[in-house]
Design goal:
By secondary structure, the chain is of the alpha/beta class. The protein has 16 helices and 28 strands. The relative contact order is 0.11.
Length: 547
């Protein structure tokens, strides 16, 4: 260690939002830091914000372009908001990837799909990893997926406890329980900073146990007589196991419906989980069975239009049809922002006569994130010098920081993406802001948010498009009638625009104004006419062809 060494923290995603987690830790003097990246996730675009963009990733050009040394990407767990951007962003970093076996298996699948042959280095559950000045222990914790890890990151300037996503579940059904002893031991050793999940910092009490959901789900399924479909996050393998268990208990055959269900079940089996899961049936075979002998496990709990459940609700799934007497259980929560598609899905199922059962009226789901009592427990275990809330919107992070202060944590930061904090030596301090932002996966092309494509698409989706072509002769006189093409414009508005364009052309005096001025005059006239007739200004493009 040299005197100018510093330990810094830089979030490039996931601070001020739930999704797109990307946290970097740097060590060394400012001019040649060595970095590790903890998690590299995506977030999902909302159609109303970014039409045509499903996937959004962090802008990591600071680490990718400025000759920064990135020693590795370490994944805490396999949720999309933590691993989804590894494959698309790996070519920018080209560094080794580390994860526990189940997570590694899913990352590898994504790399292969992206056409990359990059091995993922497996760290055993409860294992250890050394990357330059960083010595990392993987400590088992509980969440809503297999193999979530708290990372104890030891550096010459102090220990960071990076929780990843977690809860305290004494009975997680599958996988390891929270290794409370190891976390407490870390606290005894002395924790400089606790970088911690803020998702449920506003929720009082405790998140609840997966084992209780298992019982309740089974009881509920036992009361149902027709076909039953349960939808849950495919990645929640313990929940899938519970549903398999309920199927067996009540004499139903289990059929998986949806690509990600098959993918996750295969990954879990390959890495030694789901050993007690029932033999599954092809959905086509299941359709032949009596209604009360079938249990479908389907994707699409968030109302995703292409997922299995939406297709079933629209009556166009090739292998599954539900109707009167059947039931769908939503063993999941409503992710904020997805209310409309989910309620739309409930309505479509209700229209088919299907009974819709949700977490609103039945105990069929628990959160995977810590409520306030669990957060307080984590602070009592680790007793950090600095609280660093991440994985939350600002309101969650600010409340999390207040909670930490109330628990006698001396310092609490509320970081934003792109803010570079020095954690040691000396008191924690914001020392720089680096370029950050969002990259849209737009079809097959990566586009920076700042390029404004989403804004242009929103404008066109709101008020359509008018394209006008003008033809001038060699003396600059109007040589033909204007050609006007429109998309998404009502006929009376189009007529008003045509009249206004014709009027501008009639007034055109080539001695007084050139083609560029005419173009602008026509553009303004067309927009004004649309505004007067319609109250909206379409995107308007004018092309001048000079003979
Ligand atoms: Zn997460
Ligand atoms: Zn997670």
């Amino acid at each position: 260690m040299v005197k100018s060494d510093e330990l810094v923290f830089l979030p490039l995603g996931g601070s001020g939002e739930i999704g797109m987690n990307f946290n970097a830790y740097g060590f060394g003097p400012a001019h040649r830091r060595q970095w590790i990246v903890v998690d590299c996730g995506i977030t999902f675009g909302r159609e109303s914000d970014v039409p045509g963009v499903d996937i959004i990733m962090p802008d990591i050009r600071f680490l990718a372009e400025q000759n920064q040394t990135v020693l590795g990407i370490v994944a805490t767990h396999a949720h999309e908001d933590h691993i989804g951007a590894i494959a698309p962003l790996w070519p920018l970093l080209k560094c080794p990837i580390y994860a526990t076996p189940f997570t590694a298996r899913l990352i590898e699948g994504k790399l292969v799909e992206a056409g990359l042959s990059v091995p993922v280095n497996q760290v055993p559950v409860g294992g250890h990893l050394k990357l330059g000045p960083f010595a990392i222990d993987f400590i088992s914790i509980t969440h809503s997926i297999l193999e979530p890890n708290l990372l104890a990151i030891r550096t010459p300037l102090g220990v960071i406890a990076h929780t990843g996503d977690w809860k305290i579940d004494p009975e997680p059904v599958l996988g390891e329980a929270t290794d409370a002893a190891a976390i407490q031991k870390l606290g005894d050793e002395g924790v400089l900073a606790l970088v911690c999940d803020s998702t449920n910092a506003l929720v009082p009490g405790h998140s609840g146990s997966e084992a209780k959901v298992r019982e309740s789900l089974s009881d509920l399924i036992g009361t149902l007589k027709g076909r039953v479909a349960v939808t849950a996050f495919a990645s929640n393998v313990a929940r899938l196991d519970s549903i398999g268990h309920a199927a067996r208990t009540h004499g139903r055959k289990l059929a998986l419906v949806g690509r990600s269900m098959h993918k996750i079940v295969a990954a879990a089996r390959d890495t030694g989980y789901l050993t007690d899961f029932p033999q599954t049936l092809d959905a086509r075979e299941a359709a032949e069975l009596p209604a009360r002998r079938v249990l479908y496990l389907a994707t699409g709990s968030q109302g995703e239009p292409r997922a299995a459940l939406s297709r079933i609700a629209e009556g166009n799934h090739p292998d599954v049809s539900l109707g009167k007497g059947d039931a769908v259980i939503f063993s999941s929560r409503v992710i904020p922002g997805n209310e409309l598609p989910i309620f739309d899905l409930h309505n479509k199922l209700s229209a088919l006569g299907v009974e819709v059962l949700t977490a609103e009226d039945h105990f069929v789901h628990v959160s995977g994130h810590p409520a306030r009592e669990e957060l307080a427990q984590m602070y009592r275990w680790t007793r950090p010098q600095i609280a660093v809330p991440v994985h939350g919107e600002l309101r969650h992070m600010a409340e999390h920081a207040r909670l930490a202060k109330s628990l006698q944590v001396p310092e609490a930061l509320v970081p934003a993406n792109g803010q570079l904090y020095r954690l040691a030596p000396g008191p924690a301090e914001l020392i720089d802001e680096v370029p950050s932002g969002r990259i849209h996966m737009d079809g097959r092309v990566m586009v920076a948010e700042g390029e404004g494509l989403a804004k242009a698409r929103r404008a066109m989706s709101y008020a359509g498009l008018i394209a006008v072509t003008l033809v001038l002769d060699e003396k600059g006189r109007v040589a033909a009638e204007a050609a006007i093409l429109t998309e998404g414009i009502p006929q009376p508005v189009e007529n008003a625009v045509r009249t206004a364009v014709d009027e501008s052309l009639r007034r055109h005096n080539p001695k007084k104004s050139g083609s560029e001025e005419l173009r602008e005059t026509v553009r303004r006239a067309a927009r004004r006419a649309a505004q007067d007739a319609w109250g909206k200004k379409p995107v308007t493009r004018v092309t001048v062809v000079e003979l």
